[in-house]
User: Fold these one by one.
Assistant:
Number 1:
Amino acid sequence: MKDDVIISVKDLKTFFYTNNRCNKAVNGVSFDIKKGKTLCVVGESGCGKSVTASSIMQLLPKLSRIENGKITYHSNEGDIRIDQLKKNGAEMRAIRGSDISMIFQDPMTALNPVYSIGFQISENIQYHTRLKKSERKDQSIKLLKEMGIPLPEQRINEYPHQYSGGMRQRAMIAMAMACNPKVLIADEPTTALDVTIQAQIFELMDELKEKHDTAIMLITHDMGVVTELADDVVVMYMGNIVENGTVDDVLRKPSHPYTKALLESIPVLGRGKNQVIEPIKGSTPDPYNRPKGCQFAPRCPYADSSCLVMPDESSINNTHSVRCWHPMEAV
Amino acid sequence: MKDTEKKKTRLEKKFDKILIREDTGLIKNKKGSRAFRKLMSNRLAVAGIIIVSVILLASIFAPLICRYDPLKLDLRNKLQKPSMEHLIGTDQLGRDIFARIVYGGRVSILVGLGSALASAVVGVAIGAYTGYKGGLLDKIMLRLSELVMAFPQIILVLLLVTIMGQGLRNLIIIFTLTGWGGIYRMTRAQMLSLREEEYVQALRAFGLNNFSIAYKHMLPNAVGPIVVNITLSTAMFILYEAALSFLGLGVPLNIATWGNIVNIAQDLRYLQFFWWLWVPGAIVISLFVLGINFIGDGLRDSADPMQQG
Amino acid sequence: MLTYTLRRLLILIPMLLFLSFLIYLGLELTPGDAVSYMISPERYATMDPAELEAVREALGLDDPFLIRYAKWLGGVLKGDFGYSLQSGVPIRDIVFDRLPATLELSAGAIIISTIFGIFFGTISALKRGSIGDNALTLAGMLGVSVPRFIFGLLAILLFTFHLKWLPVGGRLRPGYEGFMDRLPHLIMPTLVLSATLVAGIMRYSRASMLDAMNRDFMKTARSKGLPEWRVNFVHGLRVSLIPVIVLIAFRLPILLGGTVIIEQVFQWPGIGSEFIGAVRSRNYPIVMMIAFFTTFAVLFVSFLIDLFTALLDPRVKLD
């Protein structure tokens, strides 16, 4: 295994079983999270990005399971197969929150409204370290300060509803970073925030990455965010990764028709008012009624009969790979 | 350790089965209203429908299934145990108990359902209009309903009984007067949320008058919870009638109702030694109300889109 | 917190006034000479018409309605509730005499049913779908379907007559005063009353817990690596409690209703059975005043519970 990979996901399949139906939310996904680097997972709603994150954290709901595949955490003490750990067993719980942390989309609902922020941060520290109560309190204050929250000694005792939207997200990041995790998974952390606050949060995350060498897995549907923050990019569609590479590879030389279509559907600052913005034709298929073979084929202008079989992963170069029978040439 | 392993396997097996069915294409897309299907698949609700129907039909077709007159006294045959002659025996005045139960059902169900419907009419009528219109009228009605609901219902009911006197018609009126609050509040709440919908503003822009908007256009959207409420209110009123009649303060004792039949149990001798006088009546009340509760719960579940499968 | 309290008071006081107004209206409208329950019956019986007229004037019965109302209200606030139509005993004495019995019964029932209701409801939610959950749910359904007095009758049948464990009713045996002596009499009514309340609380507690378990912050708590018990109880249960307590406040009127019936079934000498007796004998003053008193109590206790809930929910506390 390469030296700088901290989590490697191989052929992950996660299925949901509700209403007596089976939804193959994640259907064979492989990627690596590298130390100190930001991996952006992009895709439309419902493509399985959040489920992938939940699978890594073993936070899946009751009516679902990791069907297949390997999730390996390359810790200091050796490789740990996360997919084989018991969901709420001591081993997994030791990893969760201290080695791998997660922050969520809406901090208002993600934080418990009846406990103070300090309490909720302290909790994380309490269950992963042996620090005493006063030490935990100091640590919490330090964290809030680091995240740019003013008057942390006072804020510690306040409740989530007393914070503003941006501050809440900072508080949640503080909570997630409390034990200095090696990996921070951020599931659409700014979707519920104003654009200006968004910028601040991302700046903060970048700083943390630098300071603590934290690997970040950032889930988003916003290509603009990808341009800003990503080192590596993974594009997902209906439970599969359709393109995988560095940000340079994927954004400058998009190979999969879906990636290309995504990029063409957002306005780019500087291109002027005559730039062509094309929405993607059609809509995502019903997960219970999927097309055969490549899931994007019904919407793809380049599809033909070979697309009735799911394409294998093909390499464009040693960082860039794509799953398509008709990969695009560079624009 | 082994315990959790075994449990995982059971859930996992279920998953495996679903996966196989899915992969081999055995899943058919069912047609029909999702709500109705949900209701039918709820076994308790179905059981409830059966129970309620049986009792209801027995009461409606009482003359067909029972040859005795519930009011006929026959003191020579009093206190007979259940037998082929009298299915549930006779009471202390020689009346056939089965007949009393079956005919009594008519009155009890009438009181229950009638009161539920009447309070629904009142509550919905007021709630729909004031909820939509708002303003002073709304505030007054809200405070009024709060006051009515602050009275423990039994106490208010008995207070009105004291003033108005007993009687079947009075009872229904009293029940309606004391019971409209809940459904009023609920309808009003629905109206408050529907009021913000765009189509309402559009209707207003078209110049439709308030009554039309409130009753004809908004109300149909709130029907679901109202139906649930009526169902559960029926159960509540039947219980109240039973309690009142048991105390001798409900429907006058000469008319057979389920509560009146159980009234006899106040006397400890009858309670102990002549169980057939009151136990069957008690069972019928309980079963009927249980059935209604099953149905009401089922309705509530099926109307709720957020239920997990 | 202070502003919240004041706001609730501002709502409570007009309600109480309006309530008193309605009650007085009821008193005015009931048949019978108003004087008859404002002075003791002995006097009423022995007076001649001229004296009666004088008394009427003295009592201000010829004054306009609002003044009479105000005077009556003043009297009530000072503790003068009027007199019983039959016995002539001051109503205040009757009420306060019987109050401890009712409090004993209802307080006990509330405490027991709240504890058990929340306990069973939470367990039900945690073990959703299991046999235990289904059994409890069914038991709960039975609890709200079987009429309360039937529960009482069955309890008497079982415990008094078949098992001969407990006495059939009443509150004390003559001559015995201590709490331990009262206990055997207290057990059945309290348990029966609790049984009917537990069902409702259990169902609501279960629903509230299930709702809390689905909320986002539960996932966040798990993502911190917290053990399941802490996630469920420290996070889930704590949040699920708020609506349950609100519900109990809402249910207070029903609790009192149940007490009335249970008191009657077990011949428990409380306000409830007194009320029933008064209804039966058309003793209007008692009926009115007890109705007033109990509704007043309900409104007031709801107010207190409101404040308590606010304490539990920081979103309100700090407004």
Number 2:
Amino acid sequence: MIRFGPGNLRIPKFERPVYVVAGGMTDFRKRYPEKNSCELCMDALRMAAEENDLKVSPEELRRSVNWCVYSQFADHFGDQLLAAAKIHDYLGFDPLGNIEVKTGGATGGSAVLAAAQAVASGYASCVPVVGWERMDEVSTKVGNSYIASAACKDFESELGWMYASYYALMAQRYQYENEVPRESLAKIACKNHDYARFSPYSQNPGKYTVADILKNDIVSDPLSFLECCVMSVGAAVLILADEQTAFKLTDHPVQLTAICGGTHTLRTADRRNMPILLLPNETEDTYKHYFDGKRDEWPGFSSFLAARTAAYLAYHMAGIKDPLEDFDLLETHDAFTISDIQTYEDIGLRPYGRGREFIDSGDAYFEGRLPTNLSGGLIGTMHAVGATGIFQMVELMWQLQGKWDKFHGDPERWTRYGKTKPEDYRNLQVPNAKRGCAVSHAGTGSHVTVTILERA
Amino acid sequence: MTVELNGTTAEIVSDDPLVIKNVKNWFHSHSYGGWSRFFKGLRDSKLLATRCTNPECKEKRLWLPPRCDCPDCWSRMEWVPAPTVGVIITHTTVQYPGALFRASPPCPLISVSIEGVCTKLMSYLKEGTPRIGMPVRAVFNTTKPTNTILDLAWVPR
């Protein structure tokens, strides 16, 4: 859509407040044959029930639940249709109703959106969102083909069967239009691999220099392997509740003040130009000179209209005036370094064309203005697709509750996953964090959700 | 009544935990439906696009990939030949393709901007080294068609 009608950009609203009360996850691995998908989901749910300082027993929590949402990206990978039914039964929730949500890489975000809608409308008062992905039944090459099945199979999948290549096309155009130093992209990979070193859940931690990233083998130019997300197995759970239930379950619920979705064409090819949709912290003046250089269109290949639309709605819904000032924490869907830079602009951390400044200035780092992907993100920690958007929000919730160190620093947690806590472990708890934002993202920007969590 | 197993044994990948191979060997009969005209056109070295037939519709440009129906006004589209020359607006080179890839890596992927077309077709450069701004022309694989989008490629002009 390149012209909005009067009803198209209506700001969503909740009929009643929505809270998140508990979260859990497994560790994330390339291969996880030791446990089947039912067991992984149970591990994440058990952590949510037992380790979040709830005022009720796991059994009482189970007796509070009245609706469930399941989140799995690809039936191809799990090779089990209706897997949600199998997991719902395994978790002991029969005969309560459930739905399974699927929107590609943004499945986790969309699943939380569906749960929030249920709570906000009064349909339900306590809803677990359970996400997982089992990507280890096939080889990496077949896995890449499965993922590229989420491109247009008629006109685009055949061109490589490789999502990294579709992002590399955007990266080349973005670099051409904005003359971004290659190093700026590489810094994002360094940061997220590094933060993953402080997470017992992470799959691909590492201490790298920009030079290491740049000399790493190229998947599809300009992107190197270390600039691409991991392919993971694992699960994550987030429990949503209405106000009364939330305070019955915990003294420290976190409010979900906004969650909104946007979309754009599955085929990158089909993106027509349109006027820039302005966020609250932008004016027409912000882009007076945007088209003076090599840029000749928006969103083109350099921007995600889906992310901009979701941010526009969520910011208006939660009263955000300036994301850089109003957020204390951010989790982006850093599937590739290039998509992270694009997202910085889409959600208004810098105007279009200047996204690199967000990483180059130091803003994106721990102790910077808006610490981003302290979880290690998709590049360092995990991308078990159906779990990803949920994982981001669990990490944010723990930060807002001041419990990040409890869930990352306890040596027992490292032992649990057969790991040793690093000697140079850093506690990445952001002091006094009040408000966080999570961006869940699919395709080459086909679906995006933007979620805002606030300390209650 | 006695039930006989058919003798097929699932191959064991690992014994602890027990991991078996589930082998699949079948095909999907995939129809291009209304887009068949585009794919059959490639056999005859034709690049066919579509255009909205509604005179009130603001989108006058061609669609390529073609659509049978207009997303702006929901009217039917008509088929028209598209220009077979364009300009590369971005590119990359596939080094490690997924398992189903039918061409040989490294393969330069390109997005092509074509005058009068509102989209930027994704394709590949059959010869040469791609760069942004490079003028290209369409070539068609008619000798042994793959019957996929790979039957369309581009070369420098």
